[in-house]
């Protein structure tokens, strides 16, 4: 396992750019791919993305989960292309995906569609008036529609990765899985989880890990432990 294994994406779910850079410095060359989410946007998230990308050679996943009318999504995505982002998330509704792909035209940025947030269960969906059905079935349906709309990949729970990978439309598309917890780690706010190795074996291309790394006494050692766990797990069908 090399230090540059970008199948591990570390979520920089820390308050601001200073804390983000401190964590990245601790992780050093053990981690090559970082996720920056909406929570850090007002704390210098885009500046951090720019610094990690252009001064440290890291890959960047900007997790904005955009949702709006098509024209607004397209304009927002076009604006993000100036930061040379690798992955950007939008909600998986077809009109949103199509608009995002239009906004990303001419760039190398991959548009990843959110199916159903991994922190939600069936009771949460009922409260939001989401149609009846088992979550795995709904996730696969949404994934298929997002692929049809042009999504480069899907964000989904590791428990649904295998079913999404089985879709004919998933060929040469990405599956990125949050909700990954090493053996023995606390679940936090995630309800649909799997271990790093299992997520990759079930068809994920990348796993996203946050708390088990940044809350660790030794974040670098925690990241290296996860890299050791994933070993040669995975498949050859992703991008």
Features:
single chain, 239 residues, alpha/beta, 8-stranded parallel beta barrel, 8 strands, 38% helix, globular
How is this structure best described in words?
The protein is of the alpha/beta class. It is built from ten helices and eight strands. The protein has an eight-stranded parallel barrel, surrounded by four helices. Helix 1 (17-27) runs parallel beside helix 2 (45-56) and helix 3 packs parallel to helix 4.
Number of strands: 8
Strand order of the largest sheet: 1-2-3-4-5-6-7-8
Low-confidence stretches: 235-239
Helical content stands at: 25-40%
Distance between the termini: 19 Å
Strand-and-helix sequence, N→C? EHEHEHEHEHHEHEHEHH
- Helix tally equals 10
What is the mean pLDDT? 89
SS strand fraction: 15-25%
Structural class determined from secondary elements? alpha/beta
Q: Give the CA-based shape.
A: globular
What composes the largest sheet?
A: 8 strands, parallel, barrel
Radius of gyration: 17 Å
Short synopsis of the structure:
38% of the residues lie in helices and 16% in strands.
Task: Show the helix and strand layout.
Layout: E1 8-11, H1 17-27, E2 33-37, H2 45-56, E3 59-66, H3 70-80, E4 87-91, H4 94-104, E5 110-114, H5 122-127, H6 135-148, E6 153-155, H7 161-165, E7 174-177, H8 196-201, E8 206-209, H9 211-214, H10 219-230
Parallel strand pairs: 1-2, 1-8, 2-3, 3-4, 4-5, 5-6, 6-7, 7-8
Helix pairs in contact: 1-2, 3-4
């Amino acid at each position: 396992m090399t230090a540059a294994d970008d199948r591990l994406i570390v979520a920089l779910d820390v308050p601001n750019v200073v804390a983000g850079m401190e964590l990245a410095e601790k992780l050093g060359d053990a981690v090559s791919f970082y996720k920056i989410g909406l929570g850090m946007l007002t704390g210098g998230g885009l500046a951090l993305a720019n610094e990690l990308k252009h001064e440290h050679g890291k890959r960047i996943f900007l997790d904005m989960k955009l949702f709006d009318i098509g024209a607004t999504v397209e304009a927002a995505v076009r604006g993000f292309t100036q930061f040379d982002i690798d992955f950007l998330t939008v909600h998986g509704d077809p009109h949103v995906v199509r608009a995002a792909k239009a906004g990303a035209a001419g760039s190398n940025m991959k548009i990843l569609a959110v199916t159903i947030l991994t922190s939600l269960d069936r009771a949460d969906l009922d409260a939001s008036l989401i149609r009846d059905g088992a979550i795995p079935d709904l996730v696969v349906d949404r994934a298929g529609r997002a692929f049809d709309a042009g999504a480069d990949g899907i964000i989904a729970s590791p428990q649904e990765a295998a079913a999404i990978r089985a879709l004919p439309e998933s060929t040469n598309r990405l599956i990125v899985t949050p909700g990954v917890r090493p053996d023995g780690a606390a679940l936090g706010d995630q309800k649909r989880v799997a271990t790093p190795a299992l997520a990759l074996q079930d068809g994920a291309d990348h796993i996203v890990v946050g708390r088990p790394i940044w809350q660790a006494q030794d974040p670098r050692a925690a990241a290296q432990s996860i890299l050791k766990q994933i070993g040669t797990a995975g498949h050859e069908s992703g991008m």
